[in-house]
Amino acid sequence: MCLTEQNKEPEDAMRLAVKEDLEYAINHGIIVSNLAYYVAKELGKDDSFCSNIAMAGMLHDIGKLKLSKYLYGRKKDTLKIEEIKYVRMHSTFSYKILKEMGFQKEILEAVYYHHENYDGTGYPDNLKEKAIPLSARILRTCDVFAALVSNRPYREAFDIDTAIELMIDEYKNFDMKVFLAFQRFINSEQFKPVKELICEKENEISAIID
């Protein structure tokens, strides 16, 4: 058997893994993008801001595609400290990728800072309160919610009410003005089509994980 034939099976597996990573990232990004857009609207932001944050929501985790071996397809095994440090660089990777592609400053800032916590315990720069761009504070809230209501390799999705309760338990991570706007949105009629979208994309994500 030639070397090419011997390597065909692992090559096919690698191609499938990359495809699954991309599909997961796209579906998660679509959910975050829609949530962020409507939360920004709820906060009274103009069309330009809302469009930019929707784009940032779509692309905020693009840097994770460089980290697929640490993130996707994992079951219940935990990340080592060194791996956690590397995974936390994904927002920096996303920023660099999008900057090279010519995206504007407002989008880049939202992407780079979307893991900053309002109390200063986030990353990459441990920014606190209003030092964190508003767009990033919105993405932080929407990203956490989208992750909680999605099936992951290591747990099943939480229902919406439970997800909100879990976020309330961690309220220090969020700008309360943003979080209250988020809650108003998910309790409004406008949330219904987004909720349907979440269910649709969740089914796709579940199929990917399975």
From TrEMBL:
CDD domains: HDc. It comes from the Bacteria. Residues 3-200 form the HD-GYP domain. Residues 25-148 form the HD domain. InterPro entries: HD/PDEase_dom, HD_domain, HD_GYP_dom, HDIG_dom. SUPFAM superfamilies: HD-domain/PDEase-like (SSF109604). NCBIfam families: HDIG. PANTHER family: CYCLIC DI-GMP PHOSPHODIESTERASE PA4108 (PTHR43155:SF2), CYCLIC DI-GMP PHOSPHODIESTERASE PA4108-RELATED (PTHR43155). This is HDIG domain-containing protein.
